[in-house]
């Protein structure tokens, strides 16, 4: 078979199984455990190499399985029977098994072990590919058949063990598939990076979706695209180490997912924050104009004519703490959003219907909240302005109506000013 | 159905070498709303966990509906403490409720129309239909607890065991949960609730079991929540508290 086809098929198959298995590790908070597991496999792999002459995958996987299971059981046992925390146990186990592996390697010095330590995708042969294909197929079938058991096991293990018969068999079956998956993926990316190869696609998918199944599908796509890209790049630029390149691309993909995720992404957060600020700025400026018109009004306690026209200077006169140029800027931004109108013939400004509505609403929210704080929460009258300045932007119409009702539809705020209606 | 839903005899449970429950003899009546009350560390959660058979017993036995609990576990819906799961898990409200239907399914079965209908009904009862497709990480504490309750409802069991369903829950959710529990009782189900608030206990439960490592007493809540029993359960240092609870019950 063509060499390149073998490599590509191996990468595609490994991407599928690793992303499926890795998703469970991420949601069960076992990412670090998989790293320890991959280290604990090493002695088994080295013994397997030593005992078989032709890199027999059955023997290598079998012995790796024994070593991996031993590691898993040790962690379980120590966690239950000592007061040590999992992270310290993992540190001991990871280093201990790795040391055993390296000592064994120095004794036997088997050929080809380096592939497992640092990864060598080009060492994958037809026999390996068949093995990888078998593992991926079984993994897909296993997860499909035992979907409910595995889902429940990840979310609520106590209850899963309670209600599913033979749940522990399903659980250990998963561990076996995981260990074999780690051994196989090790050949591509190396023992040190293999945990990242399982974890990063699932983590990146977690940024973007909120269900385990979608997380699994997205992490498969993530893994497929980026690892194929790495193979292609290393084909073009001969000599690039493909395993580390894959992990590097994964890491870049992770950062991109973090930045652009439609739900929790940083960029989305910044954008929403910007929109919020923009809206608050407009609301605040409309409130300022309302207050200026109120000061100008002859009958501030009866009603305020918001329909009147005014010049920039008239408003500036009422708002001595704001400079003329600043006020001009604020007017222009309100003009852009069509909350303020410019009347060309009279060279005067006027609030649009939308602007009037918002201005009234903001003042109402502000003053009702001030009244609420002073009446219901015993705030002093000179302490209510600042909190109200913040809250007014976040009160929705329903909360406003409730507040109004609670206070008995009052006429005046604590400073004796009219609450607009 | 028999009168006794759950019966324990000389039930003793150890954690490591500490006795958590000592020789508890108790019977819980079918079709009643029963509260398990006692101070922190009294073994309340341990008691319902041993009903479920989650914890190994040191000695004694427990029977549910006249049989060992593992034979009838499909008929027992267990609601663990809310903190026992990771609420950042990527799963929607509906998916969690659907998990309640799993115990009665065969291992090879896939979720079908019947299971979905059961889950939908359960969601309606806890008034979370609008949240069906919401990820559970977006819920408040009270809503999370209602999701757990809905999961148990979807199981259509005879017996419901709830571990601290009112811990960290807002008033509205507490009322909703209580209303659902009373509705279940009225429909003939047996409901057992681990609870720690003495004052609300007398309004909530028909029967009360007082535990403090051993059985202090069991019976109708109006009888059991009297100072003479409570001071035994909570120790004499808490007489003020029991006195207050008693005063409040008179009002």
Account of the 3D structure:
The complex is a heterodimer of chains A (421) and B (251). Chain A is an all-alpha fold and 421 residues long. Chain A has 2 domains: 3-262, ABC transporter involved in vitamin B12 uptake, BtuC; 272-406, Winged helix-like DNA-binding domain superfamily/Winged helix DNA-binding domain (Arc Repressor Mutant, subunit A), CATH 1.10.10. Chain A is 74% helix and 2% strand. Chain A has 18 helices and 3 strands. Chain A has helices at residues 3-27, 31-51, 57-81, 86-108, 113-118, 126-145, 147-155, 157-163, 167-189, 194-208, 212-236, 242-260, 266-296, 312-318, 324-336, 353-376, 385-391, 397-406, and strands at 309-310, 340-343, 348-351. Chain B has 251 residues and is of the alpha/beta class. Chain B has one domain: P-loop containing nucleotide triphosphate hydrolases (Rossmann fold, 3-Layer(aba) Sandwich), CATH 3.40.50.300. Chain B has a 6-stranded mixed beta sheet with strand order 6-7-8-3-9-10, sandwiched between helices. In chain B, helix 3 (113-125) packs across helix 4. The termini of chain B are far apart. Classes of the chains: A mainly alpha (421), B alpha/beta (251). Chains A and B meet through helix 7, helix 8 and helix 11 of A and helix 2 of B.
Please give the structural blueprint.
The complex is a heterodimer of chains A (421) and B (251).
Chain A: H1 3-27, H2 31-51, H3 57-81, H4 86-108, H5 113-118, H6 126-145, H7 147-155, H8 157-163, H9 167-189, H10 194-208, H11 212-236, H12 242-260, H13 266-296, E1 309-310, H14 312-318, H15 324-336, E2 340-343, E3 348-351, H16 353-376, H17 385-391, H18 397-406
Antiparallel strand pairs in A: 1-3, 2-3
Helix pairs in contact in A: 1-6, 1-9, 1-10, 1-11, 2-3, 2-4, 2-9, 2-10, 3-4, 3-9, 6-9, 7-8, 9-10, 10-11, 10-12, 11-12, 13-14, 13-15, 13-16, 16-17
Chain B: E1 4-15, E2 18-29, E3 33-37, H1 44-52, E4 59-64, E5 67-68, E6 76-79, H2 93-99, H3 113-125, H4 141-153, E7 159-163, H5 171-186, E8 190-195, H6 198-204, E9 207-212, E10 214-220, H7 221-224, H8 227-234, H9 239-250
Parallel strand pairs in B: 3-8, 3-9, 6-7, 7-8
Antiparallel strand pairs in B: 1-2, 1-4, 4-5, 9-10
Helix pairs in contact in B: 2-4, 3-4, 4-5, 8-9
């Amino acid at each position: 078979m063509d060499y390149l086809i073998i490599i590509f098929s191996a990468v595609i198959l490994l991407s599928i199984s690793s992303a499926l298995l890795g998703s469970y590790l991420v949601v069960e908070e076992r990412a670090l455990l998989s790293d320890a597991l991959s280290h604990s496999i090493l002695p088994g792999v080295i013994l397997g190499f030593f005992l078989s002459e032709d890199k027999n995958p059955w023997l290598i996987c079998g012995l790796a399985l024994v070593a991996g299971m031993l590691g898993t059981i040790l962690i379980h046992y120590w966690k239950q029977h000592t007061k040590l925390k999992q992270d310290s146990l993992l540190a001991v186990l990871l280093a201990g098994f790795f040391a055993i592996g390296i000592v064994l390697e120095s004794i036997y010095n088997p050929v080809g072990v380096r592939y497992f330590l640092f990864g060598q995708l080009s060492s994958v042969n037809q026999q390996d590919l068949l093995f990888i294909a078998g593992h991926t197929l079984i993994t897909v079938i296993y997860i499909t058949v035992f979907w409910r058991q595995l889902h429940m096991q990840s979310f609520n293990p106590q209850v899963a063990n309670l209600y599913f018969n033979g749940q522990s068999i399903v659980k250990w079956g998963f561990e076996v598939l995981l260990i074999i998956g780690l051994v196989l993926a090790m050949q591509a990316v190396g023992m040190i990076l293999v945990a990242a190869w399982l974890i990063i696609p699932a983590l990146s998918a977690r940024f973007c979706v909120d269900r385990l199944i979608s997380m699994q599908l997205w992490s498969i796509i993530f893994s497929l695209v980026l690892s194929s890209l790495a193979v292609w790049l290393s084909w073009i630029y001969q000599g690039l180490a493909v395993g580390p390149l894959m992990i590097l691309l994964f890491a870049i993909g992770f950062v991109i997912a973090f930045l652009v995720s439609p739900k929790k992404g940083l960029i989305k957060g910044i954008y929403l924050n910007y929109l919020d600020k923009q809206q608050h700025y407009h609301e605040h400026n409309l409130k300022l104009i309302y207050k200026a018109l109120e000061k100008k009004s002859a009958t501030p306690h009866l009603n305020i004519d918001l329909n009147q026209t005014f010049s920039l200077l008239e408003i500036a006169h009422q708002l001595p703490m704001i400079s003329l140029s600043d006020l001009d800027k604020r007017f222009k931004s309100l003009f852009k959003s069509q909350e303020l109108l410019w009347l060309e013939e009279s060279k005067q400004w006027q609030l649009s219907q939308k602007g009037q509505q918002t201005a009234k609403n903001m003042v109402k929210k502000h003053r009702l909240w001030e009244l609420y704080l002073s009446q219901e929460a015993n705030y002093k009258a000179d302490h209510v302005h600042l909190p109200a300045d913040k809250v007014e932007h976040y009160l929705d119409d329903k909360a406003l109506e409730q507040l109004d009702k609670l206070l008995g539809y009052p006429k005046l705020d604590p400073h004796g000013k009219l609450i607009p209606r | 159905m028999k009168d006794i839903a759950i019966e324990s005899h000389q039930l003793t449970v150890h954690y490591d070498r500490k006795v958590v429950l000592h020789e508890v003899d108790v019977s819980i009546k079918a079709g009643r709303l029963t509260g398990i009350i006692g101070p922190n560390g009294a073994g309340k959660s341990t008691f319902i966990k041993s009903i479920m058979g989650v914890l190994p017993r040191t000695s004694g036995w427990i029977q549910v509906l006249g049989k060992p609990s593992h034979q009838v576990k499909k008929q027992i819906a267990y609601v663990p403490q809310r903190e026992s799961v990771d609420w950042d898990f990527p799963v929607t409200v509906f998916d969690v409720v659907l998990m309640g239907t799993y115990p009665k399914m065969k291992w090879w079965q896939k979720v079908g129309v019947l299971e979905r209908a059961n889950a939908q009904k359960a969601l309606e009862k806890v008034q979370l239909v609008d949240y069906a497709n919401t990820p559970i990480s977006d819920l408040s504490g009270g809503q999370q607890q209602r999701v757990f309750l809905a999961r148990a409802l979807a199981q259509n069991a005879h017996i419901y065991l709830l571990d601290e369903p009112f811990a960290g829950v807002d008033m509205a959710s507490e009322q909703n949960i209580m209303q659902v529990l009373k509705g279940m009782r009225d429909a003939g189900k047996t409901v057992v609730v681990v609870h720690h608030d003495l004052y609300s206990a007398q309004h909530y439960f028909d029967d009360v079991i007082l535990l403090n490592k051993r059985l202090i007493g069991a019976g109708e809540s109006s009888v059991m929540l009297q100072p003479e029993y409570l001071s035994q359960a909570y120790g004499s240092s808490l007489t003020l508290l029991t006195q207050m609870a008693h005063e409040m019950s008179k009002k």
